[in-house]
Amino acid sequence: MPKAKGKNRRHKYSYNLNRKRLYRSARRRAAPRIACSHIRHAWDPHKSVAQNLAEMGLAEDPNKAVPIPRKLLGMEVESDGQQLGKKIVRKPYVVNEMELEASLPEKKSNTLSRDLIDYVRYMIQNHGENYKEMARDEKNYYQDTPKQIKRKINVYKNFYPEEYKNFIASLKPEKMEVQ
């Protein structure tokens, strides 16, 4: 198979190309990646990071915003006593929205897969508390050991305690009818 044409040619370095200028312009155009949507909407791309954060009432440097008192030889060193003039907060709604969002209770998103729930219910329904029997069951596709099955059942109990109690309560009448 012949070689591709032009691949053996030597690559020449272009001395006339100003790579620094190209790199700077590409870097300047890139906007900062902002995770918080409230800050992202209030951000002005024509201003610096420090100016944007000052307008929102946020600190650029947390060490300067809340200084830590230094202790030397058991004595506190006092600051100059000159406090920086208070900056005008032009966008206070950003901080207010962030505080409101932080005060909301966290959603509990812990759930189990439907397959695992069905698996646990099947095992409890057919074998009760006998984990060794559960390990030998044909529905034990992943060949879980008795301890692994017990752990899965305990996870189900912790995630859905009311549902588990109702399920166990519904099983008791069935077992009485069988006997």
TrEMBL record:
Q: Name one GO cellular component term.
A: nucleolus
Q: Which family does it belong to?
A: Belongs to the NOP16 family.
Where is it located? Nucleus, Nucleolus
Please give the organism.
Struthidea cinerea
| Domain of life (superkingdom) | Eukaryota
- What this protein is called in its record is Nucleolar protein 16
- Keywords of this entry: Nucleus
- Where are the coiled-coil regions? none
For the keyword Nucleus, the answer is yes
Q: Which InterPro entries match?
A: Ribosome_biogenesis_Nop16
GO BP terms: namely:
ribosomal large subunit biogenesis
